[in-house]
Amino acid sequence: MQAAFFAEREGASSPLIVAALLHDVGHLLHDLPADAPDRGIDDRHEELGAHWLQARFAANVCDPVQLHVVAKRYLCAVEPTYLGQLSAPSIQSLGLQGGPMSPDEARQFEQHPHFCDAVRLRKWDDAAKVEGLVTPYIEHFAPHLDAAAKLAGAAE
Ligand SMILES: [Fe+2]
To answer: Ligand 1 center to residue 152 CA distance, Å?
Structure first.
């Protein structure tokens, strides 16, 4: 909710606001225990989430969701202070997710059509850990869900 709130506040498009709202839906789509990372298990929630979203939205929603973990690996490689700003769970999962990108991987990632959206989403995700911050109710984001779904329908 905070990630979507920040996306909307920055004037992001409806699909990107929806991506921010639903970027961690993959955590709800598996039966792994919540402490999976503690046990050395990567839940691959970005893949699960993107796959689930593909039946409902276009690539402008699904790709930033699929890439939000890779974007963390990218930012660790290109922004020297980034790693130090991550939450403890994000640092813990980073190792399971492949660690910081190599320079070659980073250059390749920059060529992805939704690279910028993925990085923006990642930064909202990282910022969306403010205890007690009041956000709009979920219903507030319904028009963005409708708009993103319509865009997906138009693209078919
Ligand atoms: Fe995530």
So the answer is: 23
